[in-house]
Amino acid sequence: MLNYHQINPTEKNPLTVPTDDFAAQMAYLERNGYNTISPDQLHGFLVDGTPLPEKPILITFDDGYEDNYQYAYPILKEHNMKAAIFLVSDFMGRFDNYLVWDQVYEMSENNIYMGSHTLSHFELTPLDHGELVNQLTGGKLAVEWKTFKFCEYIAYPGGFYNQLVLSETKKAGYKGGFTVYNDYVRAGDDPYTMNRIAIFGSQHLVMPRFWIRLHMAPVVGRLERFRSRLIEAGYPTLAELVFIP
């Protein structure tokens, strides 16, 4: 599963993949026989063993940026691809660089699944119980109210969760949840802690980096965790030497 954030030709930051690079990545997937799937298809595979198409891939976007509609959506349509966007529902129509609900509804009618990224994008693990429930249920209900469809999957802000978060996610009526742990999803995995491969913007070796993350996600994940441990142990200079594609 791939995890994107912003797609546009102007911003230069790690969370923004330039439009041309995103188009090249989608063309690569199509050319190499990948088949996009929905969260429900993935859930069916994990829970019921429902077969998936050959070389399945789930394309996801977090937060709900307006450029997802302006730039990513036309490219996905060009390649007849499905995708999922996890919305910070309180941000929709409130901030200029986020989607408005009319755009959300249009995409939800055209192969783009709309999930929850909570009400306000607070990290869930430190919240008191009442606010945790509010963030989980409020985000879900807002998406359902605006799309007229069930919202049954969530992407945890920052990828952070604990046992209480998982328990309340289930109680809120979600069928699954997504992290930002760089690895593949395999048969037998917990549908409430599904892994995703983060795709970042880069000015150098764009397609080689994409290829490595697509084909070697577990290695990338181990490198990220090794660098984090070096930082935690007080070796930030040494951590900078760990190359992560």
Order of neighbouring strands in the sheet with most strands: 8-7-6-1-11
Quaternary structure of the protein: single chain
| Poorly predicted runs of 5 or more residues | none
Structural class: alpha/beta
- The span between the termini is 17 Å
How much of the residues is beta strand, in percent?
Answer: 5-15%
Considering DSSP H and I runs of 4 or more, what fraction of the residues is helical?
40-55%
Sheet with most strands = 5 strands, parallel
- Taking Cα atoms only, what radius of gyration do you get, to the nearest Å? 18 Å
Total strands: the figure is: 11
For the residues shown, what is the average pLDDT?
A: 96
Order of helices and strands: EEEHEHEEHEHEHEHEEHHH
Q: Specify the overall morphology.
A: globular
The tally of helices reads 9
Describe the structure.
The structure is a single chain. The protein has 245 residues and is α/β, with parallel strands linked by helices. The chain is built from nine helices and eleven strands. The strands form four sheets. A five-stranded parallel beta sheet has the order 8-7-6-1-11. Strands 2-3 form a two-stranded parallel ribbon. α1 (19-31) packs parallel to α3. It is globular and about 45 Å long. The two termini are 17 Å apart. The mean pLDDT is 96.
